[in-house]
């Protein structure tokens, strides 16, 4: 499918979807429990993949009145009677691979062509070091994966600069092992706030886990049991970033874009509020009510490191292209290993739209002062975050912008184009 965005102004109130990161973890945590109700979850292609995995491990997930009712597998996943298809969800693949190592038998995991190109080697090595066997069928660290368990826990060393999801996967699984799991990181952890999200969810489910001087530790023999048998998912700042940026770039004169449901949480991508403030946006966050208000503003380029917030790179790149001066996005090499190489993809697409962009291995430099955005045909590369960020660029590019692969917003923000249109944008997705 193809989205068509025409330069337009926006205003009004909208609500960002629930957090994808929290929903994944809550669904799996409810699976590790005897069961729980996950309230206000994000229902998307990615989170449905995690729910299917819970079902295959012996749990049962059912959508009911906007919530997800989960009957769990009580801490010990069964051997699936079919291959676990994680579709395009890297989070599902990483988290569920560790779950598979708890089962007393063999589990096979795969996904679509994009997911089968993403690295999993450090997690496979860690699970093998804990007494299981975990391998890539192509011996390249990429899916399809074959995992044999069960593991009892122990201590492992692993790099932290490939994916924080490896740490998350081991912490979630380690709580129900006999010995627990201690993770010693051999390199600096990238995307650390995502592990903070994991610790937040574990705490809500009554599981003790903590950071150590060398990494992280979760004691074994624990039980997942959320208070009152339920868990409520907060709003998603990654998704809100597109609406907030739309307001900062294209709000009607004298009007604002108001985004609801944005209460403080462990999400690193809440940093988008700070980034917009630094760039000069007229933005106000009422943390008590969870409401963020942003008005159209003259923005200036800044330097932003995305070591902990890789999902914000496409959004910040678009803001930089529309700002005065130069925006330096640094610490970005790991952003190349997402659904697509987001550094290269944004450099290519923004250049087609008329932006002046320099791409380095670990950095994206956008010269907004030398850019004049005009509508063009660009490719979302099957990546939901590229599609949404480029849609925001289309609001301030002269003429008409078309984006291939618009259906992929279903991964994290299924009604994105409806919400954008509801704010007054000329957006046909």
Automatic annotation (TrEMBL):
User: What InterPro entries does the database record attribute to this sequence?
Assistant: Enolpyruvate_Tfrase_dom, Enolpyruvate_Tfrase_sf, EPSP_synthase, EPSP_synthase_CS, RNA3'P_cycl/enolpyr_Trfase_a/b
Pathway(s) = Metabolic intermediate biosynthesis; chorismate biosynthesis; chorismate from D-erythrose 4-phosphate and phosphoenolpyruvate: step 6/7
Known EC number(s)?
Answer: 2.5.1.19
Q: Where does phosphoenolpyruvate bind?
A: 20, 90, 118, 165, 342, 385
Question: Where is it found, in Gene Ontology cellular component terms?
Answer: cytoplasm
MF (Gene Ontology): 3-phosphoshikimate 1-carboxyvinyltransferase activity
Against PANTHER family, the record matches this protein to:
AROM/DEHYDROQUINATE SYNTHASE, PENTAFUNCTIONAL AROM POLYPEPTIDE
Which CDD domains does the record match to this protein?
EPSP_synthase (cd01556)
Q: What are the Enolpyruvate transferase domain coordinates in residue numbering?
A: 8-420
Residues annotated for 3-phosphoshikimate binding in this entry: 20-21, 25, 163-165, 191, 311, 338
User: Does this UniProt record's set of keywords contain Transcription?
Assistant: no
Protein family: Belongs to the EPSP synthase family.
Recorded catalytic reaction(s): these are:
3-phosphoshikimate + phosphoenolpyruvate = 5-O-(1-carboxyvinyl)-3-phosphoshikimate + phosphate
* Region described as Disordered: spans on this chain: 1-20
Subunit info here reads: Monomer.
How is this protein named in the record? 3-phosphoshikimate 1-carboxyvinyltransferase
HAMAP family per UniProt: EPSP_synth
Q: Name one Pfam family in it.
A: EPSP_synthase
Query: Where does the record place the catalytic residues?
Result: 311
Tell me which PROSITE patterns the record gives: EPSP_SYNTHASE_1, EPSP_SYNTHASE_2
Alphabetically sorted, this entry's keywords are:
Amino-acid biosynthesis, Aromatic amino acid biosynthesis, Cytoplasm, Transferase
What this chain does, per the entry, is described as: Catalyzes the transfer of the enolpyruvyl moiety of phosphoenolpyruvate (PEP) to the 5-hydroxyl of shikimate-3-phosphate (S3P) to produce enolpyruvyl shikimate-3-phosphate and inorganic phosphate.
UniProt keyword Amino-acid biosynthesis present: yes
**Where, per UniProt, does this protein localize?**
Cytoplasm
NCBIfam families noted in UniProt? aroA
Q: Among the record's GO biological process terms, what is one?
A: amino acid biosynthetic process
């Amino acid at each position: 499918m193809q989205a068509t965005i025409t330069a337009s102004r926006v205003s009004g109130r909208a609500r960002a979807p629930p957090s994808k990161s929290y929903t994944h973890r809550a669904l799996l945590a409810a699976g590790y429990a005897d069961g729980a109700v996950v309230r206000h979850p994000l229902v998307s292609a990615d989170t449905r993949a995690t729910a299917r995995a819970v079902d295959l491990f012996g749990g049962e997930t059912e959508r009911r009145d906007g919530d997800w009712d989960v009957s769990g597998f009580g801490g010990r996943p069964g051997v699936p009677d079919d291959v676990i298809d994680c579709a395009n969800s890297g989070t599902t693949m990483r988290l569920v691979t560790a779950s598979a190592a708890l089962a007393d038998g063999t589990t096979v995991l795969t996904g679509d062509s994009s997911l089968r190109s993403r690295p999993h080697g450090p997690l496979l090595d860690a699970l093998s070091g804990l007494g299981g066997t975990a391998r890539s069928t192509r011996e390249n660290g990429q899916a399809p994966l074959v995992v044999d368990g069960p593991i009892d826990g122990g201590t492992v060393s692993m790099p932290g600069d490939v994916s924080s999801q490896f740490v998350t996967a081991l912490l979630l699984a380690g709580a129900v092992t006999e010995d627990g799991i201690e993770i010693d990181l051999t390199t600096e952890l990238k995307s650390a706030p995502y592990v903070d999200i994991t610790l937040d969810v574990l705490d809500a489910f009554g599981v003790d886990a903590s950071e150590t001087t060398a990494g992280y530790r979760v004691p074994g023999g624990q039980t997942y049991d959320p208070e009152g048998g339920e868990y409520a998912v907060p709003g998603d700042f990654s998704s809100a970033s597109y609406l907030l940026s739309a307001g900062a770039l294209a709000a009607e004169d004298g009007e604002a874009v108001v985004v609801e449901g944005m209460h403080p949480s462990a999400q690193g991508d809440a940093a988008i509020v700070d980034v917009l403030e630094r760039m000069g946006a007229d933005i106000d966050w009422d943390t008590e009510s969870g409401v963020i208000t942003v008005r159209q503003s003259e923005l200036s380029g800044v330097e932003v490191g995305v070591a902990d917030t890789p999902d914000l790179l496409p959004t910040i790149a678009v803001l930089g292209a529309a700002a005065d001066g130069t925006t330096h996005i640094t610490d970005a090499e790991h952003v190349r290993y997402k659904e697509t190489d987001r550094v290269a993809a944004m450099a290519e697409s923004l250049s087609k739209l008329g932006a002046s962009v320099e791409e380095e291995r670990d950095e994206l430099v956008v010269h907004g002062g030398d850019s004049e955005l005009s509508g063009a045909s660009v490719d979302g590369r099957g990546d939901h975050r590229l599609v949404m960020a480029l849609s925001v660029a289309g609001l301030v590019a002269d003429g008409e912008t078309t984006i291939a692969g618009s259906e992929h917003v279903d991964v994290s923000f299924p009604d994105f184009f409806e919400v954008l249109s509801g704010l007054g944008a000329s957006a046909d997705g």
